[in-house]
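Incident log, support desk, overnight shift.

02:14 A customer reports that sequence design results differ from what the structure should imply. Their input is reproduced verbatim below. On-call engineer (initials T.W.) acknowledged and began investigating.
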């Protein structure tokens, strides 16, 4: 008995050390990603400055070339007619030509150095981008492994009957959660965080513009700054809306879908065009059902935009006495349904949601013929409290 306890304790210690080592590795990779991201931001700013300096140096070089040609012409004229010019004028013409030529040589050397540094920075940025992407991918994979090692999968087992499906589905749920966290992190970093960083830089610039130029130009910078803040606010609201649209609790499914579609069209500059039709009863449904139907519509619309490359999407929802019907149809490139079913976690997730509602999911698609998603949920699920 004591031997069994000892073996169990040793195994537990080994298991804990494995988790500790894996978790430490995740932390190290995360630090590498953060350091690379900081270096990327610094180099990106340097690259913008280098590009400006290159343009300024080229413009200065063009001006110097004009001056050199003029000075050479003057020197040539003085040399040909040296009898009518005194020694001071000849010397002055020579020194002027020499000075302009020297400045031009220095300018060309500076231009070469700036371009060389610019190219080095661009190459380093490409390397850093690859490092950050690989690090994020590794962190995501390690997070999945840690979650899979430490989480209790019994709750997933209550949903999935077969042991193999249970293991696979549990792993994919964890993977999807990590992907969603990574996507949200990237959206915040590339959206509001980047915009706010730019706001800080522009706010520092306003003081300099006011001192060195004019109040009018400073006011123009303030107006531009206001636009940037407005854009950042829009991005924050869009991200919040994607996480959980507050209008769903206040207004219900139909108005929220209409507002969501309008927001999606605005964000994607009207491509694809999305039409929305609502038929039947406008009676409120149970909150959980409204959330489920909204997520199903959201997933279908997102797939049409991201994967189908559609120009036109139609969304139709019909609430009848016996059932609710949701149809999302696009004119995109389509896909082979049977090949995609086992590979797409999005389709698997939609199928699970519909099955929980005792409903039916039909996906009709073919290469080059668009996609039609139809979801039918029975009346018994609709209006029960």
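02:41 Re-run completed on a clean worker. Output:
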């Amino acid at each position: 008995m004591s031997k069994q306890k000892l073996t169990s304790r040793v195994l537990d210690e080994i298991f804990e050390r494995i988790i500790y080592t894996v978790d430490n590795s995740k932390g190290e990779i995360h630090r590498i990603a953060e350091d690379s991201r900081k270096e990327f931001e610094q180099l990106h700013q340097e690259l913008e400055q280098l590009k400006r300096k290159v343009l300024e140096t080229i413009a200065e070089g063009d001006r110097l070339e004009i001056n050199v040609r003029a000075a050479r012409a003057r020197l040539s004229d003085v040399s040909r007619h040296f009898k009518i010019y005194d020694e001071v004028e000849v010397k002055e013409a020579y020194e002027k030509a020499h000075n302009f030529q020297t400045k031009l040589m220095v300018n060309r050397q500076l231009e070469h150095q700036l371009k060389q540094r610019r190219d080095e920075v661009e190459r380093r940025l490409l390397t850093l981008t690859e490092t950050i992407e690989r690090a994020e991918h590794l962190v995501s994979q390690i997070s999945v492994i840690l979650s899979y090692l430490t989480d209790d999968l019994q709750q997933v087992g209550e949903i999935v009957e077969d042991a193999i499906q249970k293991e696979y589905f549990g792993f994919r749920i964890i993977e999807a959660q990590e992907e969603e966290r990574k996507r949200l992190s990237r959206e915040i970093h590339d959206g509001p965080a980047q915009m706010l960083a730019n706001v800080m830089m522009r706010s520092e610039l306003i003081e300099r513009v006011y001192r060195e130029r004019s109040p009018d130009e400073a006011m123009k910078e303030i107006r531009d700054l206001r636009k940037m803040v407005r854009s950042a606010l829009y991005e924050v609201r869009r991200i919040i809306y994607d996480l959980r649209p507050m209008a769903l609790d206040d207004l219900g499914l139909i108005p929220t879908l209409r507002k969501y579609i309008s927001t999606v069209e605005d964000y994607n500059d009207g491509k694809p065009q999305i039409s929305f039709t609502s038929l039947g009863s406008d009676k409120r449904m149970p909150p959980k059902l409204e959330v489920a139907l909204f997520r199903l519509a959201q997933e279908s619309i997102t797939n049409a935009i991201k994967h189908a490359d559609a120009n036109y999407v139609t969304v139709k929802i019909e609430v009848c006495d016996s059932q609710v019907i949701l149809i999302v149809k696009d004119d995109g490139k389509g896909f082979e349904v049977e090949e995609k079913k086992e590979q797409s976690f999005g389709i698997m997730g939609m199928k699970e949601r519909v099955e929980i509602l005792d409903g039916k999911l039909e996906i009709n698609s073919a290469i080059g013929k668009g996609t039609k998603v139809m979801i039918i949920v029975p009346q018994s699920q609709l209006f029960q409290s």
